[in-house]
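Feature request disguised as a bug: please show the residue count (571) next to GMC family oxidoreductase in the output. Example input:
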Amino acid sequence: MVTTLPKTDVVLIGVGWTGGILAAELSKKGYKVVGLERGKGRKLDDYLMVHDELRYSKRHEMMQDLSRETITFRNNEKMRALPMRQHGSFVIGEGVGGSGSHWSGQNFRYLPYDFQIKTLTEEKYGKNKIDPIYTIQDWGITYDELEPYYDAFEKMAGISGEENPLGGARSNPYPTGPMKVSPVLKLFKEATTNLGLHPFSVPSANLSETYTNPDGISRAACQYCGFCSRFGCEYGAKADPVVTVVPVAEKTGNFDLRTHSNVVEILHQGNKATGVRFIDTQTGEEFIQPAEVVGVTSFVLNNTRLLLLSNMGTPYDSKTGKGVIGKNYAYQNNCGETIGLFDDKQFNLYAGAGSLGMCIDDFNGDNFDHTNLNFIHGGNIALLQTGKAPIGFNPTKEETKNWGKQFKQESIKYSSRQIALDAQGAIMPHRYHYLDLDPTYKDAYGNPLLRMTFDYEEHDREMAKFIGDQTEKIVKEMGATETYTTRDQPTYDIVPYQSTHNTGGVIMGADRETSAVNNYMQMWDFENVFVPGASAFPHNSGYNPTGTLGALSYRAAEGIDKYLKNGGLLV
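Example output, currently without the count:
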């Protein structure tokens, strides 16, 4: 038996950053909002005294239960996709806050180039610069149009930073100043400056100082404990939906947060959604939640899967290049790493924060000439001092075996004398990289799993070689005794961990033939369905996606307000 609940103005599928922002903004305007989260609830008190590397970092306490739902993966269409049985290449959060609770806190703005990448690349280098197999397209919005929403997200989160000398124009400075510059970061800053580059502090959601945001939420400054990524912050210093937007929504009295509620279908008639069907994961009961507007606000991969399961939008077909749902899946090109060993310098690498670092954008976007290069875009090169946890950090020389007396001696010696410098490289969308439903494997409820088809291409390998040359120069300038540089980008594998920066699948644009949503994150085919988040990115840039998905969420909240007042497709 399925129980139908009273109709609400807005129902949200997932309560992480995107769902939390929509909940706060819309409930403040007086709309009744229901947030359905398939995981458990969280409060700041749940993060107290949780500095347990084994439990959270290695055994993935805050992550999705892959025995109930996972994805299947293959490198190409000739392979059979197999289920991801344990968290590896990326980790998917579950529970209130989602990935916004266990993230590191690095919070960049994408470059103006990103939003008009096809137009600007062709204008500068000609149409032949981009192989047609790469399905690159403009986003349907410019940086200048999105800038006010970036500003809103940064003020809400209290982002700590300094102006990027090679970034887009800002309407306001960061609400709080940059993080500390530790000795190793000072060394990086001096080395890159000597090389004629433009270093700046990594924009940080780990607060550099006590801060009260425009909603009246006060949070304490970061203590540099080093337990950020894969952990909740016991001080509330790391911006997290649990300590920022969710309390604001709850305070209005207009937000009904329902945990352990797994949405399995979006219901629709004609070109409108009527609500969602969800299962109480504790009792097994089924419910229908009718709503005027449906916000698909879960993780990238689940956004795509839900639309495919609900027969909403045209599934992407790699054979014809037509269709939009599942199109332009992109990962992150973690490229060109250089390891530096120092015999005459020591650093306290166990202290840190998820976004404590210095970086450069000289080799990101189109900030350098690509005329004679076999790739476009690039990556943000950063030296991060995130806090080296003792179980996972045992640095040795490259040729040393992972056991024995020499391993132990070098682990002790280089625990304070090794740094790693690499880049978050952009990934260009590819005709044969996409998401669809797996024909074989199903989840605990009998629904098809999502299938991922992805590999690194020659474009990514060329970028890795180029970035490797740059990171090596910097580490040598820092005075490393020995360096080890990785220039090869091997075949992509679902293990080990690399980055949780998945993008695409429900992409935005100005043309309904090549995109699933418009620049308000509103579906072209279902006018009362909004899908914000990184699933809307037409390509992956050389940064963490959170700042941009936050900005798009504020844009979507504005769009939902306009839709509820006036109806129709927004322009």
